[in-house]
Amino acid sequence: MQDQARLAELRQKFGREPAAPSEPTAERTPREAQPRFRGLESGHRACQGCGEALAARLVMESAGPDVMVANATGCLEVFTTPWPQSAWRVPWIHSLFENSAAVASGMEAAMKAKGQNTKVLAFGGDGGTYDIGFQALSGMLERYHNILYVCYDNEAYMNTGIQRSSSTPHAATTTTSPAGKERMGKRHLKKDLLSIIAAHHIPYAASASVAYPQDLQRKVRYAMGIDGPTFLVVHSPCPLGWRHASALTIEVARKAVECGLFPLVELERGAVTNIMPIRQVRPVTDYLKLQGRFAHLTRDGDPRAQEERDHLQALADYNINVFGLAGDGDDPVDTSGITTVGRGGPLAGRPQ
Amino acid sequence: MREALEGSQAIARAVSLCKPDVVAAYPITPQTHIVENISKLVAEGDLHTEFVSVESEFSAASVVLGAAAAGARAYTATASQGVLLMAEVLFNIAGMRIPLVMTVANRAVSAPLSIWNDHGDSMAVRDSGWIQLHAADNQEAVDTTIQAFRITQETELPVMVCMDGFILTHTLEVIDLPEQSVIDDFLPAFEFNRRLDPADPKSLGTLVDPGYFAEVRHSHHAAMQKALSVIKDTDSAWETATGRACGGLLTVEGDPGAAVGIVAMGSTVGTLRAGMAHTPEAGPAKLIKLRAFRPFPTQALIEATQGLDHLIVIDRAISPGLGGILGTEIAAILADVPNAPKIHNHALGLGGRDIPETIYADLIEAIKDPDAPLIFDADMAKLAPEDR
Amino acid sequence: MTVLTRGAYAAPGTSLDFKTGNWRSTEKPVHIHAKAPCHAACPAGEDQQAWFAKLQEGHVEEAWRELVSANPLPAATGRVCPHPCETACNRKDVDGALAIHNVERWLGDEAIANGWAYPVEPPADDAPTVAIIGAGPGGLSAAYHCLRQGLKAEIFEALPEAGGLLRSGIPRTRLPREPLNAEIDRLLALPGITLHLQTRLGRDVSLAELKASHAAVLLAPGCQESKHWDVGGAVPSDLHEGLSLLREFMDHGQFPEAHNVVVHGGGNTAVDLCRLMKRAGSEHVTLITASGLPGPDTDPDDLINVVPRELDEALEEGIEIIDHATVNRLIMKGSKVTGVEVVSLKKEPSASGRKRRVSFEGTERVMEADMVIPCIGERVDPDGLNHLLDGSYFWPDSPFGKLEDGVYAIGDARGDRGTVAGAIGDGAKAVEAAAAHIAGRPQPTLDTRAEMASTGLNPVYYALSPRAEPPKVPPEARTFTTEIEGDIGRTAALAEAQRCLSCGNCLACDNCWTLCPDNAVIKTQELASDGSHYLFDLDYCKGCGLCAHECPTGYIQMVPETA
Q1: Which residue of A has its CA nearest to C461?
Q2: SS3 of residue C479 by DSSP
Q3: Tell me, which fold does domain C37-118+452-498 have in CATH?
Q4: Contact, C333 vs C301, CB < 8 A?
Q5: Residues spanned by CATH 3.30.70.20 within chain C?
Q6: Are residues B125 and B25 in the same domain?
């Protein structure tokens, strides 16, 4: 309570933060004094524990402030910009669901034409990336625009109420792939988008997870340094759509990586150049049992549930084999090593 | 400088004179020559622009949207299916009040597939909130294109310059292309104060709840109405600069005392003008060339039709189940005007059907026929009885 | 009225106008500095986490000063304490408890080697003086804490030397004289402490006199008198009682000859004696104890009260231990023992709630023995204290040891104690209460904070690293004088400090700050008012609980909104 009073007092005294990040301020509130760029500000209307809001916040911290964003229609767009408010502190535009890559292409062309260096980012959800915006994305990559495209992958159309997308994992329930007497959730597989992206032979494509923020931010910084198209897909749990407690967002994302269902890999010019090894591979059931969307798979005594669990385990094993994810010893950047903390913050005492 | 140029080539040269920062386009007949010619200018170093060869019209519109939002003078061109594929973006561009210019080389919309001219494509997006200006010939198309860049900048409304596919785009005409210095004086440097700018990071394209959506639409409608005077003033300024005008919102020619008027848009105007000259026995008419279709010059039209007994309205597209589009709109406008002329609405030249000069006499004659068909040049003999 | 912007654009960061904090429905995050289990378990009241934190930052002397703010004798306790802190350490569920006692000992030795001074100021000339009976660990601790409270201390010790049980009851193999002397000398040299040796309560001074002449009296006499022991009335003629046998050996270096020794009891003295006798040449040495040996399911109430590593070393050295048993009968030839009958027993709950011992018929067995040594504990010498004792001990009903106004009991003389660390902690607490009494302040209260259980931590954030193991003299090379457990050294001590999980306390790891989807955790340059480095901006916190779940130490907890 003491802190709240102090915050209120400081706000009263200094008013709200300046309109532009470049605006100088004599004295700053604690919020303004944060040692990071607040590209995505508080007051946005994402659900509690939103993985996408977290992912976008982390991306903005590493990418901003000299960026501009084209944002596809979706939760991120809706919860950040209900007029007259905006949670963004970078130039940002939302046009349509399927055209963020193309709008970004135009922005980038404008920057080139005007001889400016502001980096253009394009954001989309899995619906806007894997599905409806896929063509525009492919065009953007092929034309070699200097754009970082970030896909916030929460594995369904969450904004419209949890409908299946081509990114929805096999056997997950959504409102358009419900489980019932005849069906065990989504019949098809999660699209291997990263391979398709990589086939464009672009400089850099990677997958990241909100459970590994340092890794995610390193990938953003790396992509920001590349003059050309780069792509990042960030696994971003949706507590509402995946049906898990809002406090478990990170836990769920971590288990997805640790079981092999969401491999963290980096591809340069189509070739795998880095992976995050899994120090201790977990069974997929550790991941599935945390989420209501897989509840039908954890029923005892249902042979179909067993078969689908085994199928998902086989898919995870496939990823582990294809990318060589099983670590062969302790590694400071494996799934266990990279999350460790010490007194004084993640970077304390470590070379930057 | 006067040059014999194909319509498309002339448009490319006109666009080039306006020094767009970004051009994005996707090939479609009959617009193709425009972007080919722009590409060539870029390739030869005569035009310094970011030319983005997109993978669809949808992206073409999206790219120019993004480019303009980022503060670039942007241009695209399309036709027919391309317009329809762009449709969602067109509404979006206008709703966000993004300034940019697009040429539509008017062509029929499939199915059936037809690559030839009519106005079905631009009419399909008449409610998108764009300014739509129709050129009657290639000089007008060139002049209107240049004016469009100034209008869009001033109104922050996107401008669509419509020219008849093939009839204009593929026709050689002697064109007077102004000197670069004339253009530079006429067209101020591109400024867009809502542009995406890290120094003043605005958020464009927000979610607006029912509490303000009506106001958004109202402000758009009001902006379109205010654009009427901008269109007119810009044409006047152009006349001052070049000695040549395009007719502002609409022009009236022919016999001022005539009891019959004809309203048309695009190249049809020229055909009717020739028909009127070459078949004096059909009688005189007031020929009204409508240049601004959106915003619609309601007041100017009412004034132009005063004293007429009959008004023939030529459409080059129809709204099946209702009738001609322009005709229906004009009928609505004149409904409350005292002593308004009787409206005779006909569609002509759909899907590239040739419009002969003799059509003028036929149209005048048809005033007497209450059963004259909506699609005036359709031949019922070509239809099975049950399809007539 | 908000005026529409053209094209409905919005200004940056204006979402701050929308306070999402009112979305929180039931719970909000708070910083709760729960007690670390090591601290909760430490009888001396040490805050291990605090001195480990200093070590993590590389500040060794500061770490020692933090340590001796509770316990002035770390070089001694680091050697002799059964370290319940390590038993409680949450890291045992990850990759092994921290080697707290080794680091404590290393810090104590560093302080001696470097001559570091205690963080105390001399008391004022007119400061009240507290009388302390006994210069054992409890009395010494009390004297030290008197100075920390601004009081003077006057110690009355019956023996010719200070140190109490540390000196007389613990073999040098566990506690060499050098560090012990160094710590006691350093403490006694503090201005404001006066020591009267060979001054016995009841003979040289009386409690009544002391009460009259001093602001308070602290009783830390320890337990000197052997308890009576017999088995069914039988007592061998050559009976040697455990503690006195050990003292005799430490003074003269000799044990009476015996081949088959049975030690009956269950404390450190019993184990020390077993090991020394075995080393002195007895072929078979057997410890018979009613308690249980350490195991995963051992009830703490049932666990043998011996330093765990001492027990391991004893087994290593060939001591046999019969647990959950007692001596049922002595088999005598004349007045000499030739064997013992052993019977299994267990402590069982009783209707009254206290444990009762139940022996099991049919489990009797006989073993050869030519010496039986009872090690069943000692009692307070009642001289001059009779009216305050309840049976053999003091049983104060206050955790601060208060027996009557201005009189406090400390250490082994209390019936509910039994460790050096307990005596040291009693010293601090009794002085705290006495100081309040003298100053007329309200009596102190205990720290009632909840303890952080390992289930409240998020262990994924800790890098695994094995516990440091100190060097040890191998069993065959052990003597009567050389210390068995060695020094872990600076490198290992500092590395061990890095293993501290910081249970219930803020590591300033940035997890909450990094992972809040709502940017509602504000990092502060200085310490926040609650001692962390972060503030919760409840105007925007939606109460998702993510920060609490991902807090490695359990420092962030979700509490009902109304709390």
Answers
A1: A340
A2: coil
A3: Fumarate Reductase Iron-sulfur Protein; Chain B, domain 2 (1.10.1060)
A4: no
A5: 15-33+506-560
A6: yes
End-to-end CA distance of chain A: 36
Contacts of A57 in chain C (CB under 8 A): 517, 519
In a domain, A346, yes or no: no
Contact: C9, B156; criterion CB under 8 Å: no
C1-41 per-position pLDDT tens digit? 899 999 999 999 999 999 999 999 889 999 999 999 999 99
Q: Could you say which of B242, B273, B289 is where a domain stops?
A: B242
C51 and chain A in contact, CB less than 8 A: no
Select the residue from A42, A234, A236, A340 to test the C interface by mutation, using most C Cβ atoms within 10 A. Answer: A42
Q: What percent of chain B has pLDDT over 70?
A: 100
Whether residue C466 contacts residue C95, with contact meaning beta carbons closer than 8 Å, is answered with yes
Q: What is the Cα–Cα distance from C460 to B258, expressed in whole angstroms? A: 91
Q: What residue has token string 């002799």?
A: C80
CB C4 to CB B219 under 8 A? yes
B213 and B94 co-located in one domain: yes
Q: How far apart are the first and last CA of chain C?
A: 37
Least CB–CB distance from C7: residue in B201, B204, B215:
B204
pLDDT in tens, C305-342: 888 888 999 999 999 999 999 999 999 888 888 999 99
In whole angstroms, give the CA distance from residue C71 to residue C480. Answer: 28
Query: Number of structural domains, chain A?
Result: 1
The answer to whether A279 touches A285, Cβ cutoff 8 Å, is no
Domain range for B188: 2-242
CB A83 within 8 A of CB C10: yes
**pLDDT of the residue at A3:** 55
Alpha carbon of C55: minimum distance to chain B alpha carbons (Å)? 45
Secondary structure string (H, E, C) spanning C244-308: HHHHHHHHHCCCCCCCEEEEEECEHHHHHHHHHHHHHCCCEEEEECCCECCCCCCCCCCECECCH
ipTM score here? 0.96
Tell me, which fold does domain C129-224+380-439 have in CATH?
Answer: FAD/NAD(P)-binding domain (3.50.50)
Are B310 and B361 part of one and the same domain?
yes
Question: Where in chain C do CATH 1.10.1060.10 domains reside?
Answer: 37-118+452-498
Whole-angstrom distance, CA of residue B108 vs CA of residue B113: 8
- What kind and span of H or E run contains B105? strand B101-106
Summarised one tens digit per residue, pLDDT across range C207-254 is 999 999 999 999 999 888 888 888 888 888 888 888 888 888 888 888
Q: For chain B, what is the domain count? A: 2
Q: Which of B242, B262, B283 is the last residue of a domain?
A: B242
pLDDT digits (tens, 9 = 90+) for C124-153: 999 999 999 999 999 999 999 999 999 999
Same structural domain for residues B190 and B322? no
Check CB contact of B200 with chain A, cutoff 8 Å.
yes
Same domain (yes/no): B183, B71: yes
Q: What is the CATH number of the domain that holds B123?
A: 3.40.50.970
- What's the CATH code of the domain at A272? 3.40.50.970
pLDDT band for position B318 (cuts 50, 70, 90): very high
What are the chain B neighbours of A90 within 8 Å (beta carbons)? 198, 201
Residues of chain C contacting residue A248, judged by C-beta atoms under 8 Å apart: 549
Task: Say if CB C55 and CB C61 are below 8 A apart.
Answer: no
**Cross-chain Cβ contact B72/A68 below 8 Å:** no
Q: Residue A275: give the domain boundaries.
A: 37-323
Chain B residues whose beta carbon lies within 8 Å of the beta carbon of residue A46: none
Q: Which of B71, B201, B208 faces A83 most closely, judged by CB atoms?
A: B208
CB C12 to CB B203 under 8 A?
A: yes
Q: Using CB atoms, which residue from B156, B201, B216 is nearest to C8?
A: B216
Whether residue A79 contacts residue A71, with contact meaning beta carbons closer than 8 Å, is answered with no
Does residue A312 belong to any structural domain of this protein? yes
